[in-house]
Each structure stands twice: as C-alpha cells, then as structure tokens.
Amino acid sequence: MESKNIKSSSSREYVVGLGEALWDCLPTGKQLGGAPANFAYHVSQFGIPSYVASAVGKDELGEKALELFSEKKLNCIIPQIDYPTGTVQVTLTGNGIPQYEIKQGVAWDNISFTPEMEKLSKKTRAVSFGSLAQRNDVSRSTIMKFLGAMPERSDVLKIFDINLRQNFYTREIIETSLLICNILKINDEELSVIEKLISVPAMDLREVCFALIEKYGLKMLILTCGTNGSYVFTSDAMTFLKTPVVAVEDTVGAGDAFSAAFCAGILCGMEPFEAHKLAVKTSAYVCTCKGAMPELPDEIRKATHP
C-alpha cells in the first residue's frame, strides 16, 4: 500500500495535513504520530474530506503506519521511499521529564512534489503545515510548491502550526512561512522564541500577537497557553477562553486537535469565537484519552452541523 488516489469528483475540495509522519518511541512502546496526520484525522471526524501528505519508508514501521491510517479511514498520499520511517526516541530522566531525539535523514525529510501531490494542492481548501518538516530542503521545497499551487481565494486557509522542535528551524524558515500563511497557530513558549527571533517590538503577549498579525497580514492568530487558557486574535479583536479542568490521560495530539476543530468550525461557517469554543472542547476531550487520535463523541463531531 503506497497511497490512495484522489477521488475523481471535480468539485470536491480537501483539508490537508502536510509534513511529518513518524513514530514516537516511548518507554511503553511505539505510538504513531506527527502533527499533520493528527490534524487531518480530527478534521475528518467533522465530516470534512481530509488528507495527510507525507512519506514513510519501505520498512516494517512504514507498513504499520499505512495500515493504521487505513484503519482510521484517513485518505493519504504517503509513498514508501528509500529512507527509514521517521522516529522520535523518547526517554525519561530520573525525575520523569521526557527528553526527545528526533531522527534525521528519514522519509518525511524527503517528501517529493509529485503529480499526485500537485493535483491535491489544487483541490485544497485548507492546509496545516509546520516548521519541523522544513528542516530538509526536499520537504521544504515540496511544502512551498504545494502552498503556491493552492487555489487563490480569500476563503482558502493556510495554517502555519509553527511547532518548534529542538534546533530544527531558522529565521528564514519562520519568516517565509509567516509571509505565505494566513493563520498562525503558536503556543506561549514558541511566541517568546519568535518575538526574539524576528524582533517584534511589543510590550506584552497581546501586543506581540497583534503586531504579528499586522506585520504579516494574517487573518487570525491562535495562541495556546496550556492550562492558562487560549486566545484567538484577528486584526481588530481578541477572544480568551480558560482551559477546562479534566482528568488528563495524556496531552499527546491535543494541540493538533485544537487546530483541527478550529479549522473545521471556520470552514463550516462558524464565527471565530464559536470555532474557538469548539477547539477548546475538542482539545480537552483528547487530553482525557490515550493517544493522539481518539474517536470524538457525537456531541463534538456534530457541533459544526447543527
């Protein structure tokens, strides 16, 4: 199994998670991950046709990844290529703090812009991409070509879920991505890094966010602050919502679920505040489940189609 062909409907458009597909190698075992796949899966649960676009190796982990995507009924363009499937080695220190080693020279570092990928890009109404998959020139070039080939309409969403990891980013990657996206998703720790990296002149968190919107012509900026709540900024407004108190199983994929639910809400005609509420509720639910891709309850899935 290499990939599923794009369905033949001439009018159908898709939401795409574009970038890394990998396995988190935890002390308790391996778990399929990657922000683009998590994003695409959760968008699909709201009844919106979605794809994940990446690459895996011609190895056991690659085969298993494709099997699991198939079980989740997630459309994919994920060719198996002559590089190992991506892995992240997760180890715990003596006090239980996780340490991550993201392997390099892997399949998702070498995603090619194939004719099938180009065909998908022209039928994409929203895409989520990050900085991590741009650490290698091959995948970075593909991401830029994909974004450039998308329909040029005001309602098309290009979501930069910045996702800073280790030292796998540069000022050039960040600024180029900010210039091409129209929605930025970032957390409070990443915001501090970006503020210094690109010298945003502002006094506090809110001013930094409004300054980024103005400087890069963004439609919206989503800022998550863990247990301290989340914000959605537009050019002239801001909403804040507290993070619900829930019994946390793990937080893997919670941020991706937040982005997916917000995107689904906007595409289904919700105002930003309503989409924000749905995103918070979805993210909180995912935190109560094990793993990044739990099945969402009907109460959440049907919220975009009252």
Number of helices: 10
The CATH class turns out to be Alpha Beta
Give the averaged pLDDT, no decimals. Answer: 90
Radius of gyration, in angstroms, nearest whole number: 18 Å
Low-pLDDT regions: 1-10
Tell me roughly what share of residues is in helical segments.
Answer: 25-40%
What's the CATH superfamily, by name? Ribokinase
Topology as a string of helices (H) and strands (E): EEEHEEHEEEEHEHEHEHHEEEHHH
CATH topology: UDP-N-acetylmuramoyl-L-alanine:D-glutamate ligase
Instruction: Indicate the proportion of strand residues.
Output: 15-25%
Strand order of the largest sheet: 6-4-1-10-11-12-13-14-15
Name of the CATH architecture = 3-Layer(aba) Sandwich
Shape descriptor reads globular
Q: Whole-Å distance between the termini? A: 37 Å
Which structural class best describes the helix and strand composition? alpha/beta
